[in-house]
Amino acid sequence: MFNKDLLTWCKGPKFKEQHIDLVLLPDMINKKEEYRDENDQWMAETGLQHAQETIQDYWTKLLRWNL
Fold first, then answer.
1. What's the pTM value of the predicted model, to 2 decimals?
2. Residue 8 vs residues 1, 3, 4, 11, 15: alpha-carbon distances, Å
3. What is the CA angle 49-54-58, rounded to 5?
């Protein structure tokens, strides 16, 4: 428990040059990195050369569901 009277408000930077973007580290779950939603991004299929098998599996499953 905290005594709220002992807490102080955080003061932001006075100048824009003082602003630092914080990089959040991934959560570790069962010794594996688990990334948060803010790490999500849209990428073109052409930029995913090492995931072609996974992409093909996705499209195959999608077509099966739509039949």
1. 0.38
2. 16, 11, 9, 9, 21
3. 125
